[in-house]
Amino acid sequence: MSTTPNGFTLDNSGRRLVVDPVTRIEGHLRCEVNVDENGVIRNAVSSGTMWRGLEVILKGRDPRDAWAFTQRICGVCTGTHALTSVRAVENALGITIPKNANIIRNLMQLTLYAHDHLVHFYHLHALDWVDVVSALSADPRKTSELAQSISKWPKSSPGYFADLQARVKKFVESGQLGPFKNGYWGSPAYKLPPEANLMAVAHYLEALDFQKEIVKIHAVFGGKNPHPNWLVGGMACAINLDGDGANGAVNIERLALVGSIIDRTIEFIDQVYVPDLQAIASFYKDWTYGGGISSQNLLSYGDVPGVANDYSASSLLLPRGAIVGGDLSTIHEVDLTDMEQIKEHVTHSWYKYPNGEDGLHPWAGVTEPHFELGPKTVGDKKRIEALDEEGKYSYIKAPRWRGHAMEVGPLARYVIGYAQGNPEFKEPTDKLLRDLGLPLEALFTTLGRTAARGLEASWAAHKMRWCYDELIANLKAGDSATANPAKWEPETWPKECRGVGFTEAPRGALGHWIVVKDGKIDNYQAVVPTTWNASPRDAAGNIGAYEAALLNTPMADPEQPLEILRTLHSFDPCLACSTHVMAPDGGELTQIRIR
Amino acid sequence: MKKKVTTFYDVMEARGISRRDFMKFCTTTAASMGLASSMVPQVVHAMENKPRIPILWIHGLECTCCSESFIRSAHPLASDVVLSMISLDYDDTLMAAAGHQAEAILDEIREEYKGNYIVAVEGNPPLNNDGMFCIVGGRSFLDQLIEVSKDALAVVAWGSCASNGCVQAAAPNPTQATPIKKVITDKPIINVPGCPPISEVMTGVLTYILTFGKLPELDRQGRPKMFYSQRIHDKCYRRPHFDAGQFVEKWDDEGARKGWCLYKMGCKGPTTYNACSSIGFNEGTSFPIKSGHGCIGCSEENFWDNGPFYERLTHVEGFGIESNADTIGMGVAAGTAAAIGVHAVASAGKQLTKKDAENT
Amino acid sequence: MSNEHEEKVLSIYVYEAPLRLWHWINALAITVLAVTGYLIGSPPEAMIGEASEHYRMGIIRFLHFGAGYVLLFGFIGRIYWAFAGNEHARELFVPKMYSILWWKELLTELKWYLFLTKEPHKYVGHNPLAQFAMFFIFLVGMVFMICTGFALYSEGAGAGTWSAVAFGWVRDIFPNSQTLHTWHHLGMWYLLTFVMAHVYVAIREDIMSRQSIVSTMISGHRLFKDDRP
Question: Which residues form the domain of B247?
Answer without folding.
Answer: 232-306
